[in-house]
Fold Secretion system C-terminal sorting domain-containing protein.
Amino acid sequence: MKKTTFLKKCTLATCFFLFVFQINFSQNNNGTIDAMGDIAIIAMNKIVTPSQSDYAFVLLDDCLAGTKIFFDDDDWTGAAFSSPTGEGVSEWTNNTGKTLGAGTVIQVNFANNNGTTGIANIGQVNEIDSGFNLAAGDQLYAYIGAKRAPTVFLAFWGETSAINGTETAVLTGTKLSNGGSDLTDGITARVTSSLGFYNGSTDCNGTLVNCATMINNAASITTGTFTWPTGVKTAFKGSALPNKFFGTTNTNWATASNWGYETVPIASDHIRIPNVTNKPIISSSTGAVANNLTIDASSSLTVNSGGSIIIDGSATVNGEFIYKVSVADTNWHLISSPVVNEQYDDTWNDANGINTSGAGNNEAVATYINTSDADGDWVYYQNNAGATTFGSGTGYSMKRTGAGDYTFAGTFPPYPVNKNISANDIGGANENRWTLIGNPSPAHINIATFLSVNATPLTNTHENVYVWNATTSAYVPLATGQIHPGQGFFVNSNALSTSVTFTKVMQSDQNGVTFYKSSNPKITLSLNDGKNTKNTEINYLEGKTTGLDPRFDVGTFTGQSTSFNIYTHLLSDSEGIDFMKQALPNNNYHNMVVPIGVNANAGKEITFSIDADNFATNMKVFLEDRETNTFTRLDEANSNYKITLANAQNGIGRFYLHTTESSLSIDKNESLENVSVYKLNNTTLRITGLNQEKAEVSIFNILGKQVLKTSFTSNGVKDFALLNLSKGVYLVKIQWDSGKLNKKIVLE
């Protein structure tokens, strides 16, 4: 059989490059200083008055507590040092009681020939053999072993030609009996007759070979004596020298002393989690960041609920990445997996306290489908159904038997994450545009950015994310703030099939949720039936209109039916959509009358009340009941409007909210802005906002032919059947005692 090798097709230059790097660099990145190239000398200096010698080196591998490195300024002859007692030896010891991370720079300064402890920025240094006296044309060998008895040469800086005319320092034989190659100029050694310091980059990216070669490059030196330690590098970073978590103090990610750099990682840092006893935990109040992240085999990284981690580059998980989503009760919650490749089955459900006492074989992990009817259905995991992988960006409804954590273990999601959303039976009786999705990442998602990126696939009347508040048992729309890791939410699709996108730019380590600024006038209208309270908001904002303002006018959640609710309709160009939040201009209050919709069963006693914020002191708020012909002021302390419903309420037409800065004048003449005409569906026309008075409606086709004419007495809402009309454009004309209105509609 013909044998081929990688080197067969390389050029002479690249083959030589590979040979040199593979043979001459024995650094093994094994977490201890024990191989050639595990350090690099980055400065050597001599000051005459007062007499002192200085040197600095960078760790290219981790340095365990107790490690000793010897620095010898004698000349190596190829088999031994030439003057066993005539030159000096400096001994540096890691006496910090902890591991020093690769990239750490040690700077040493002490007086010559004093035989006492010198000064080091980290660790301890002693002149253990007098005569340590650096000079131009001198040499400095670094090794481990014992004084003048090296077992491994680590690095070199200095001259290798004749010294003082007789002695010659060489690199030959520095491999000792360890195999491989000797110290090599430009890789593990710097051959120069000059004192000076390394003046190049401190970004060590790629491999350690690349890093060592960069540091020992002949051109990257400022030569001559200098004021110590001016110009000497203080630390090296990069993908070849990642910031490692040693857990020296505890398991807290945010504790600086746990890290090899002695600093908590920043966004540009490359991170590595080795297999240590104290494995890192990101707390609920910590927003962690990193460039690239590697989790070694048998190691792990855990993020507690509310915490986050943003990876700007890539993540490699050889061990475990864990995110815990905490709940404080036994209620249903919308949850998503913050990791990729986690699965749920009976084992996962048991470990995570999933409620298994549902009907039949139902267990309390459910997905939402919108293809059944207008309010959708939940599909529950079945006992013994086998393993199912959590979808990235998919939302689930879950319920525990007690307070605790949902634990997800897997890898980081690849970006961007595209999540399909859909709508069913658009324009039909079973129209359902809701899809349950969720935050796919272990970082918070900025809601405003998510909505901006996904404005096209989302319906403009429901351009918010809808989260479930388990405490109030209500869906809450949000346009600003943050979606927490593990949070599921509903969105409203603008098409039968489309998708939303999660991008890295959406990620945030910020907490908190806001909506409108508190300085703006706002009315929160509440409806209570003795057991439940529902709210609708009206916000008065500069630049907003009486028509649709996407993201500020927010439709109600219709993905599940409710028999009790309160909402508003738009004042202009209403299409019959129920809004749980509405934005209006912050002027002309008197002329803006807001239609209030109510869903409540017959016989219910309901109570209206308001919370009005940031209005002028002379602003008054009235609730009009057109069935009882009453106006009730609600802005006064402890005021409300209570009524028992003789008939079920299911829409607008009876109740209206008035705001005025003067006494309310009750006028039967309707403002055109308060009357709405819209297509409820393709077979029904609805007219709202008229008082109890006679009116006439006429409908004309595009050719001007009248196709419908009828008179009616309004009670706030009037519906007309359009069963015999074909598809097309029609003009609707309405006339009543005090006005008239024309509106174009399209039947599809």
The two ends are 73 Å apart (CA to CA). The longest strand covers residues 649-660. The chain has five domains: 16-223, 243-318, 319-513, 522-666, 676-747.
